[in-house]
Amino acid sequence: MSANHDGVTVTHRRYIPYGHAHYGGNLVDGAYGLGMFGDVATELCVLTDGDEGLFASYADVQFKAPVKAGDVVEATATVVRTGRRSRTVEFTLAVVCRADPERGESAAVVLDEPIIATTATGTVVVP
């Protein structure tokens, strides 16, 4: 039987460059956050099981707020259920800083409260 890893959390922080804008208004596509979820899931599997694991499925994905070029985002993964070979993981993508072009070309602010942009639940499998 594997060890219980419930509650183990990994967070990655990343600046989103303007070259990643995909839509008008400097919007970034939803796949950007899902890619980050894959990255935090990989580190989570390495941390808990000594293997990169495989992402098996998403049970739920919710796009709650826009993500824009110039944002700094945090992707967080937390194990909520440990099976013999599978882990159920809750994911959150939060915007923690945002560009503020009205103040200047390179102006940005740290948000008082992060904006929850994307949430998901997924399953990863480890050998």
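^ that was protein a. below is b, sequence first then the tokens
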Amino acid sequence: MKIGEEAMPAEGIGEHSTSVRTVLIVVSDLRGHPGTTVGEIAARTGLPQSAVSASISRLRSVDAVITETDPRDRRRTIIREAPEVSERVTQVRDTPIDAALAAALGTEDPDRVSETVTVLEELAARLIPGLRA
């Protein structure tokens, strides 16, 4: 996760009260539990509810998630991934991790970095159900 944080593009996103890591944890939980609430994410992740709320706000600001009032209980807000991939999500997904990975590996060898990326992709495909390429 730390390497992913290092690779994350930060241009033009401004200052936020939540860390990239917190947002990534919230996104990961949301993918595994669509149609969830801030309180449920907080309970599952152990993050403070305020940090989850700030992360959801940050994700809403880049159109990565949508929120809607629960029709069965109007006090609850349901959170889902946005049906369309936002420009920010596309930018994040398209950002290579090569430089951050090279730094973590302590190498400038592009072949070694490429081999490591391949191994990580294979591992992710095996461990993450429904992984999006």
